[in-house]
Amino acid sequence: MNNSDRDTGHATRPKRADARRNAETLLDAAAAIFVKSGVEAPVRDIAAKAGVGTATIYRHFPTRADLIIAVYRHQVDACAEAGPALLATSPTPHIALGRWVDLFVDFLVTKHGLAAALQTDNPGFETLHDYFLDRLLPVCTQLLDAATASGEIRPDLNAYQLMRGVGNLCIGADNDPRYDARHLVELLVAGLRRPR
């Protein structure tokens, strides 16, 4: 390997990190626009929110389906990664669980915005539900186990039941301004506490 090869190798690493950050910025912008305007929102709106040109979005995500799948996975990953961090930084495991459930609700609101698109015949969408469960069930289990071990919550609920219950409470939240899903989810999480 000559010096120019070494220099090139060093120059490409930061670009890969920059490209990853740029893609994350695009995904965050797309998620925000999808929540506000739906998955059929113009790409130019996403580009404006991200501070890039539309060509940059198409370079990363050639089709709208590619973008929708990437937003979904990005949000699942962010929710999964937040669980252990919240457990490490929250005053108690029950508080960590409540904070994580708040993030999960935020994800579900966006997911319900993607629901129509996810029901199409695009083969890329087929694996998303499994990805969702594979990434989030272990995190929710870890949080529930920690809160149970600390004696804060009842031991008679598993992660799937909690996630399903939260999901059911979120259905229709975006269509009815009188319905406050977040408040009901807070009551659900509070109800997990062990009676004193």
TrEMBL record:
Protein name, as recorded: TetR/AcrR family transcriptional regulator
One GO molecular-function entry: DNA-binding transcription factor activity
A UniProt-annotated Pfam family: TetR_N
Superkingdom to which the source organism belongs: Bacteria
Keyword field: DNA-binding, Transcription, Transcription regulation
Feature: DNA-binding region: 42-61
Domain HTH tetR-type: 20-79
Phylogenetic placement of the source organism: Bacteria, Bacillati, Actinomycetota, Actinomycetes, Mycobacteriales
InterPro entries named among the record's database cross-references: Homeodomain-like_sf, HTH-type_TetR-like_transc_reg, HTH_TetR, Tet_transcr_reg_TetR-rel_C_sf, TetR_SbtR-like_C
Entry keyword Membrane: no
